[in-house]
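Field reference: sequence -> structure
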Amino acid sequence: MPNTKNFNIIPEEVKNVLIVRQHHQLGDMLCALPMFAAIRNKYPQAHITLIASPVSYDILKSKANPYLDEVINFNKQTIFHILSFFNGLYSRKYDIGIVPSTASISRTSHIINYIAGSKVRVGVESIGNKINKSANLLNIKSKFNWDEKKLHQTERNLDISKLIDCDISETDKKKVRIYFDNSEKEFVNRFYETTFPDKSKPVFMFHPGAAKAMNRWNPFNFVDLMAVLYKTYDPYLCLTSGPIDKEITDLIKDELTQLNIPCEVIEKTPIRKVGALIEKATLYITNDTGTMHVASYVNANVVGLFGPTNGYEWGPVNERGCYIQSPGNDINGITVDNVFELSKSVILNHSVK
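Structure field:
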């Protein structure tokens, strides 16, 4: 592992830190939250800037975010936007620039980090057999074989920040959260008072969509699960729906209507407000997708459903989170009974608290 002393990193003198993670996957970004916390812990006086994609920009762009001072959307619309973007970065004079590659390796991210003029540039030399062809743009780097160790994505991100001695304790990892401002909290309170007025009834939320078709549990499984939960607990039922999920949520809503089971649908709502709504729910059952990670970092009672992807690598890491791994690559190897039984234990633990 590189010796950071060779690069004269004196924590008290670090004024600006750049993190470049402009991938489009929301879950990948949120798995880096403990790493952001570790960097903040090491350099509390520094101005920490994150470069994000339009997909993951909104969830972290908030004054309530204690880990980041600035979140920049990488705007590539015109050459003017690109030049303005790089001029702004270069003028900041970054002491440290980090490219946390844990799943895919982005050449663009390394170029951004390099052009920004970061004195110390941190990242991966390779991930298993995947060579970083941009590793020459880094001056602190290491080879990682995370798959052999079956490490979660949060730990993979932290392994990269550990190259410059940025880490946090197990206790502090559990405290890493998405925080909400007063307007977002007020929105949630109004929504619950209007939509779920009977405070004695639990609120069960579900996310049946996902960007990848192979990560979607059969929507009719959701219908059957929601029906049995409704019969057992008489809860409020609610679906969360992203821009690409409308066809699935409409189908489920129609099927439930035919069964005379009421169900709300949250759609066309900013992701931070969706997260704030999930935080207050009694139960959140979701496919392996971005909102599952949102639920994890608001410490919701979340149950993640996993088929071809590995729950040990991508599952909820919060103390109230859990997941079910299909016995095969097909997510529909998970039965309704499997999810119902696990949900019962989650609901019981919630009622005890």
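Note: Confidence is low (pLDDT under 50) at residues 1-5.
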